[in-house]
Every structure is written in structure tokens, then in C-alpha cells.
Amino acid sequence: MSEVKWIANNMQKAKCDELDLMSLREMEKVIAFHKSFPQYEETPLVSLEALSKELGVSGLYVKDESFRFGLNAFKVLGGSYAMAKFIAQKLEIDISELPYSKLTSDAVKNKIGDTVFYTATDGNHGRGVAWAAKELKQKAVVYMPDGSSLIRRDRIREEGAVCEIIEGMNYDACVRLASSEAAEKSNSVVVQDTAWDGYEEIPGWIMQGYGTMGLEAINQLKELGIERPTHIFVQAGVGSLPGAVVGCFQNMFPDNCPIITVVEPHAADCIYKSALSGKREIVTGEMRTIMAGLACGEPNTISWEILKNHATFFASCPDWISAKGMRMLAAPIGDDKKVVSGESGAVGFGLLAALMTRENLHEFKTALELDKNSKVLFFSSEGDTDPEKYKSIVWDGEGSEFNVTI
């Protein structure tokens, strides 16, 4: 059976200003922007009290992003904010002067004209960009890697975007395609949730957009009487989400940041491999995993700087870890609420459950200092964005540790 791989962050820390991107001042602008949307509602923070007792920790808290803007995933937070920052830059005003009502007005549209937003996606980011483009009366072109879910493609098209699955291309190749096409055409820009040398401003804005989720979680924990979580498990594709989470919490708790573990699938563990070598590493190939949203092989250059300096642990997990997390969240015990968490949203929770119940992970559990006093936060970044896949895993046992091909 394929097992969990992990490493503590022993990289030499550099003194730099990478945390400025997620400063509390910037995060306040971000959440004020999102709150200006008529569709805005704070997504739930689910406290799993019965399961906490079952697993032997003080508290388990799941930020359920399946309720975000009716799009079933958190990604719209980043795409919408980056697109708004792009427009604010063109208008030469600060984002604080561009709430939803003004952003979507005919006056702004007439000033900036027509823009085509290009992007590549495994599903959730592309749908968020497509939705935001529709709200802005603009256009979006979305490319998806070979093997992508047809349901996710169709939902992007329902938002009015041009969306194609590109045969023979993985996620990173689709990113390059979107970038090259946007560069070749007038009034076009690539809005991508990864960064590379020479393309860092927009990805930085996307990471800032994710800060709304972090600030909401911090405030919701305080409402429960919890000043700070002791631990956070956060999943990584290119690393934008964990980079945003680490940056947000490190700025909020500079002297006592929670222990933060970055979690990836075995097939696409570019962050874990980078932590092993101490430098940014790239994973190539098909990257086949049930965690489609995490099947990315090239670390975001901006988030990597944050993670290598401030993340605590890195873990690479087999698919059964994610499947276990999905099933546990879907079948609560006692009075706990059900959380519909998709393949890319549940891997952190599945890892915690394995850590608390399996002797072969005792060394990792001890290193993490997980015990009866631990208060653990998770970000369930998507719901059942592919309902058929969700049922195959939760109902029919796909991805189980007992039927995985090793």
C-alpha cells in the first residue's frame, strides 16, 4: 500500500519581504472588495466536535468553500480580485475605490473597453474566471488539460466562456498555451493562479484574493472562543493556496504562527520535492491522481518563497488519503454536520485522520505535536464539482486503500 511521505522544513530561512504580499492591510482591502458583491456570504466554518473526540484532538474545524458565490469552490476569490486589480490599474485608481457596483457599471466598461481573459484550469479556477468575466461584461477563454472532467468543462461554458480540453497537454502545458495566446492578441491578458519569472503581478493578486477565506476563518474561530488554531493542513497544486494561507496566518500571528503542513498528491508533489532538495523543483508527465485540482507540476515562484521560509511541514500523499477524508466528512458522527468535500478539498483532513489512527505515522504525528490539546483547521477548497466522480469515490469506493493499484 502506498504510504505518506513527509519532511520537516529544515531549509535555511532567508530575510526578505515576501510576506508583504499578504499583509493585514492588503487583506482588509481584499475582504472589503468581496463583501461588496451582492452574492457575498461568509462560507461556514464547521466544528466537528464528535469526530474531535473520536480522533483524540481538542477541535477540528473545516472551512467549507462549497458555498462560495454559488460556484462550489474557493477559486473565484482569487480570479475576481485579480481581474478587478487589473481593471483598477487600467483606471489608475486603488482597488478600494472599485467595489462591485462600480466595477460592473457601464461607465467602467466604456472606459476599459473589451478585454479577453485567458486562463488554464483543472476546473475551479477556470469557472471562477469565467463567472467574473461574465459579471464584468467581458470574455474568457479557458483551456483544460487532457483527461479533464466534461462536467467541469460544461459548467465553465455555462458561464459564457470559450472552454476546450486540449488533447495531449497536461496542466502546465495548458498554462503555457493560454499565456502565449494572450500575448499574441490585443486587449487580452492571462489570469493564471501560478507564477513564473516575468509573470508575478497577477498571480500575486490572485493569492491576495484567497485572503478573504483566511480572514473569515480567523474571525469565525474567534467567535467560537479560539484565538488561534494550533495546526493547519492546507493542500497545494502550484502552491498559491498554501502560500496565501501561510502568508495570512504568519502576518496575523507573527510570534506564534500555527504549525502549517502543506499537503500534495504523490503524482504531483512539486512542493514536497522542492522541500527535499531545498530549491524549486518541477514534476513532469501525466500526473494521474483523483485530486485533479492539485495535478500541477510547477511551483508558483511567489508562493514558493513564502512556503520555504514559513511553512512547517510538507507531505506527499497517496490518493486513498483524499478518498478517506471525503468519506469521513460525508458521513459525520454524533451531531456533527456533513461536509461535501471534493477530491482536492479533503486530502488534508484525510491525512489528519490517518495520523491520529495509524501506528506507522506515529513519528510524523509526534513531530507535528498533535495531541488532545490540538485545534486543527482545514480548508475544504471545493465541493462535489464533479458529482459523478464524487459518488464514485464516496459511494463506490474508488480510491480506497484496498483497491488502489500500486
Question: What does this protein look like?
Answer:
The chain is an alpha/beta fold and 406 residues long. The model has no long low-confidence stretch (mean pLDDT 95). The protein folds into two domains: 5-74 and 207-394, Rossmann fold; 76-197, 3-Layer(aba) Sandwich (Rossmann fold), CATH 3.40.50.1100. Helices cover 42% and strands 14% of the residues. It has helices spanning 24-35, 49-55, 76-91, 100-103, 106-112, 124-135, 150-158, 171-184, 201-209, 211-223, 240-252, 270-277, 301-310, 319-330, 347-357, 362-368, 387-394; strands at 5-8, 45-47, 59-64, 116-120, 139-145, 162-166, 188-190, 231-235, 259-265, 313-317, 375-380. The protein is built from 17 helices and eleven strands. Helix 6 links the parallel strand 4 and strand 5. The strands form two sheets. A seven-stranded mixed sheet has the order 1-10-9-8-11-3-2, with helices on both faces.
What does this entry show, briefly?
The chain is an alpha/beta fold and 406 residues long. It has helices spanning 24-35, 49-55, 76-91, 100-103, 106-112, 124-135, 150-158, 171-184, 201-209, 211-223, 240-252, 270-277, 301-310, 319-330, 347-357, 362-368, 387-394, and strands at residues 5-8, 45-47, 59-64, 116-120, 139-145, 162-166, 188-190, 231-235, 259-265, 313-317, 375-380.
